[in-house]
Specification:
This is Transposase. InterPro entries: IS4-like_transpos (IPR047658), RNaseH-like_sf (IPR012337), Transposase_11 (IPR002559). The chain has three domains: 81 residues; 194 residues, Alpha-Beta Complex (Transposase Inhibitor Protein From Tn5, Chain A, domain 1); 71 residues, no CATH class. It is 44% helix and 19% strand. It is built from 13 helices and ten strands. It has a ten-stranded mixed beta sheet, with helices on both faces. Helix 7 links the parallel strand 4 and strand 5.
Amino acid sequence: MLPELYQKHLKNLLSESQLLFFYLVVIIVQDIKDVKLEKIAESLPLPIKCNSRRKKLQRFFSLPIFQIKKMWFPLVREWLTQKFDKHKKIYLAIDRTNWNNKNLLVVSIIYKNRAIPIYFELLSKLGSSNFLEQKQILSTIIGLFDSYHVVILGDREFCSVKLAEWLDKQGFKFCLRLKKNEQIELKNQGWISLKNSGLKPGISLFFEKVKVTKTKQVSGFSIACKWKKSYRKSVSQEGWFILTNMSELSEAISAYKKRFDIEEMFRDYKSGGYNMEGSNVVGKRFISLLIIISFAYFIATIKGEIINKKGVQDYVARVKEYGRLTKRHSSFYIGMYAQKWIHFMDKCWELVYALMRLSRHKLDNYLRGMRAMKLIQSTF
């Protein structure tokens, strides 16, 4: 079942039958980890023909209520109120992903080494986004963050000085990665290309309040530069040149590092989770499907957090490994596969019980595991 926050909101938007069907689809997507319409239809436990189930899904995804601002924004706003103190610094990453003929622009909030999608928009073209498209998608979500200090993070696609000026006027901090052939003006040196700025592996530089781009000559912003030092087999091929309105090098670099959490989110949406790139729906139905995935992703992340707090995550997945500084799996992974584990236990209980009876010398371990399973089940 969905968290109480979701239930209350969705009851105001969907009829009882629509709400129950919504629950079913989310549970199935979470279980089969595939958002192909045919795969969902095959798993949908309604006693009707498979083709009828597929058509029912198509009609459901075509409902006019499936709008990001109506279904998703109110939940995001409430979640922000619960998780973040007012005037707290919040990091938003803007990025684009594409596959087949789909070109998706996404804004996400960085949360515990992952990114939670806030808004997404299908571009009507292939290739990179432009300033107007970037401005439009960011303008859409500004109202959600009125009470917070926002930092916008973007890779080299979003290095437009127009975007930097606009973000600065909105009162946002930003860290936008520049291309290495971009030019800046330095005192006593004139205009130089960033690749000739002297940045080398293991070195950091900070050019404060310089003019950027020889054509636009925008001033007032700084360039934070860092090239990670090579260590054993870890070799960094190039450095970072970050356009920012932050005042310190360490602050800007620390902020930009968080941008890579959106890459993990894309992996979770695609091959590492829901196999979104295999979906064959388009247009309005695709946005509806993205909303479903976002609900499932958010729920799995929340459940994973709860399981971690209960201290039983080791029963779901191998959390740590020797020599690894970070966790092996995220809260999303724990929440997603915890559901799979307890469902398989229900299906195979008789076999499991028989195996445990044959290994009485491990009874204490099994009892601890049963207790852990009950704690995990209590989160669903």
